[in-house]
């Protein structure tokens, strides 16, 4: 069976295979998204070291459709990689969390492209007061675009469920058209006791170098904003 997953609210359901590649409307929030085959959906691939981050691979929407059918004959699907580090007191609700999507917003005169993301998290082992999520972005050629970051400063008790929404402006139409993959992970967490816990980056680097062999540790840091 095929799968429909809403990029906005996370609603997911199976549908008939005949709908693969077509746009469908979410019954909950009315957002449009593309139906993909069941074999293209989430495939969890734990790292060999179970004490380190666990790698979850998901398939995003077709590039051509997300880029307003600029390349409507393309069957290339985006890649979403979610890294969940069990060492951290904050983890992902992997079933709901997706990678980055592209979209548009009206600036009063025209429409601007943007990256958008909705992340679902769960506080696991101890109360927290702040955390940072990072997204590494890559184009279809494997080049690293930017490292995007989103920070939340708020008190969250153990077992709290968190929904985090962020958007970032794209610098050009070509960034939206060429965007291919994102790697999402919790970069650091501040506990209620005042301890700052940093993410294990070895697996992050390994996954980033699947796309770009030249990816460096420095590129893990948020990219400087262009004027």
Would you kindly provide a written description of the structure presented here, covering whatever features stand out?
The structure is a single chain. With 227 residues, the protein is mainly beta. It has 2 domains: 41 residues, no CATH class; 176 residues, no CATH class. It has 3 helices and 16 strands. Strands 6, 7, 8, 12, 13, 15 and 16 form a 7-stranded mixed beta sheet that branches. Strands 9, 10, 11 and 14 form a 4-stranded antiparallel beta sheet that branches. A 3-stranded antiparallel beta sheet has the order 2-1-5, with no helix packed on it. About 7% of the residues have low confidence.
List keywords for this structure.
single chain, 9% helix, mainly beta, 227 residues, four-stranded antiparallel sheet, 3 helices, seven-stranded mixed sheet
Write the layout of secondary structure elements.
Elements: E1 2-5, E2 12-15, E3 23-25, E4 32-34, E5 36-37, E6 43-45, E7 54-62, H1 63-66, E8 77-84, E9 90-92, E10 101-106, E11 111-123, E12 128-139, E13 144-156, E14 161-169, H2 173-178, E15 179-191, E16 196-198, H3 202-211
Parallel strand pairs: 8-15
Antiparallel strand pairs: 1-2, 1-5, 3-4, 6-7, 7-8, 9-11, 10-11, 11-14, 12-13, 12-15, 15-16
């Amino acid at each position: 069976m095929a799968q429909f997953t809403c990029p906005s609210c996370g609603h997911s359901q199976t549908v008939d295979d005949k709908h693969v590649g077509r746009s469908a409307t979410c019954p909950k929030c009315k957002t449009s998204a593309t139906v993909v085959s069941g074999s293209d959906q989430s495939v969890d691939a734990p790292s060999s070291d179970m004490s380190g981050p666990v790698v979850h691979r998901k398939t995003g929407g077709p590039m051509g459709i997300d880029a307003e059918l600029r390349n409507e004959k393309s069957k290339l699907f985006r890649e979403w990689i979610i890294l969940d580090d069990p060492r951290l007191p904050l983890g992902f609700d992997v079933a709901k969390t997706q990678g980055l999507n592209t979209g548009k917003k009206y600036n009063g005169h025209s429409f601007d492209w943007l990256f958008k993301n909705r992340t679902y998290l769960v506080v696991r082992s101890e109360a927290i007061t702040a955390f940072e999520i990072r997204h590494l972005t890559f184009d279809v050629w494997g080049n690293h675009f930017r490292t995007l970051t989103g920070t939340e400063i708020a008190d969250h008790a153990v077992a709290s469920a968190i929904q985090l929404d962020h958007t970032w402006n794209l610098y050009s139409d070509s960034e939206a058209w060429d965007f291919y993959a994102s790697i999402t992970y919790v970069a650091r967490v501040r506990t209620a006791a005042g301890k700052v816990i940093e993410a294990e980056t070895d697996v992050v680097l390994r996954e980033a170098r699947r796309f770009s062999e030249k990816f460096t540790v420095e590129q893990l840091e948020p990219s400087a904003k262009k004027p």
